[in-house]
Amino acid sequence: MIVMSTRRWVMTGIGIAFLMTLPLLLPNFWLVNIFGRALVYGIVALSLTFLAHYGGFVSLAQTMIAGVAGYSVAMMAPTAIPLGDVALPYALAIPLAVLAASFAGAVVGLIAVNTREIYLLMITLALAVGFSLFAQSNITWFNGYEGIRNVVGPEIFGRPFRTPLVFYYTALIVAVLLYLLVLYVVRTPFGLVLQAIRDSDRRTAAIGFHVGLHRVASFALAGFIAGWGGVLITFYNIGITPSSIGLWATVGVLIMAVIGGLGHPLGAFIGALIFAMMDTFASSIIGHDRA
């Protein structure tokens, strides 16, 4: 199976090599708060781009699913404040959190399996906002409005995760692996059926494929991708609060996917980079003292 042409492999390799050298060229602020931030939020936008471009499903629940992973790893984190009832090493907490996000993605897929277009947007937006409000009002599990703090992430090769180089390279490796996973999956029989459903679900069903099952599976895979983003975002923010998965965060991920272009998975990261730069420097451009 050919995932990419030789020319695209070469271009991808050059792009990854460039990103690998950024720590030699940029100060830590740019490395962590611009490029690192773009990578972790770009992963969540990638899950949306995967669903929208290859399945034809524009889901606004991806931030919520990332939040499921974020809250899961925070509730199990051994350093969390407040400490959860089940504190586990990060080596166990991270895969369990990603598994929870995959399950949440499948549940969203089951709920939205028979909806299309504007109705899909509405039901996934309702799920996203509903989960944020539930997290805000629930003290026992999510610590309400304050959320869960001090989720610092694991040590990697004896160095804290919050070290700029460790955070950046971990985010880069995870983002590249998930990007290649999407390119691989869309060329498998499952991915081809998914694209056939996007073009005509009735025709795909007529030739014997189970449309609903493929849709649920695609949401579960998108949940797996968003889950990794949610875990890394929680480590980036050193915790998670209801506002980090609320309406503005949901719209933010949609903006990233749209301005980067929904036509290719790479657009998710380009859009996230543009969004991170605009969000960071917009106040400097406009000025704080405008009337």
Concise overview:
With 291 residues, this protein is mostly helical.
State the total count of DSSP E strands: 2
The strands making up the biggest β-sheet line up spatially as: 1-2
Specify the overall morphology. Answer: globular
Q: Major beta sheet, specifics?
A: 2 strands, antiparallel
Unreliable parts: none
Distance between the termini: 59 Å
Give the strand content: under 5%
Q: If you had to describe this structure to a student in words, what would you say it looks like?
A:
By secondary structure, this protein is mainly α. It is 71% helix and 1% strand. The chain has helices at residues 6-25, 28-55, 62-76, 90-111, 117-137, 164-185, 189-199, 201-206, 211-237, 247-260, 266-286, and strands at 148-149, 239-240. Strands 1-2 form a two-stranded antiparallel ribbon. The protein is globular. The N and C termini lie far apart (59 Å).
What is this structure's SSE topology?
Blueprint: H1 6-25, H2 28-55, H3 62-76, H4 90-111, H5 117-137, E1 148-149, H6 164-185, H7 189-199, H8 201-206, H9 211-237, E2 239-240, H10 247-260, H11 266-286
Helix pairs in contact: 1-6, 2-6, 2-9, 2-10, 2-11, 3-4, 3-5, 3-9, 4-9, 6-9, 7-9, 10-11
